[in-house]
Amino acid sequence: MGKHRISKEGRRGPRLFGGRPPRDDLFERSFRSCHGCGADVYVLANDCRDCGHRIELRAG
Fold first, then answer.
1. Rounded to whole angstroms, how far apart are CA atoms 40 and 38?
2. 54 pairs with which residues across the strands?
3. C-alpha closest to that of 40 among 51, 58, 11, 18
4. Is residue 4 part of a domain?
5. pLDDT-based confidence at residue 47 (cuts at 50, 70, 90)
6. What is the pLDDT of residue 42?
7. Which is higher by pLDDT, 3 or 25?
8. Angle at alpha carbon of residue 41, lines to 43 and 31, rounded to 5°
9. Strand, helix or coil for residue 7
């Protein structure tokens, strides 16, 4: 057996037959709602693609 072992904590086995992928919080935090139309906008975008509303970058 090799030196490196993969921890089995948090692992539910191989996903051979599909199943639900783990929840990706980073992906969900990469978008925010437009104040003009409510569409999802990428967090670093300058304006909304749907309505053109200017998006302000806010900390926190």
1. 7
2. 47
3. 51
4. no
5. very high
6. 92
7. 25
8. 50
9. coil
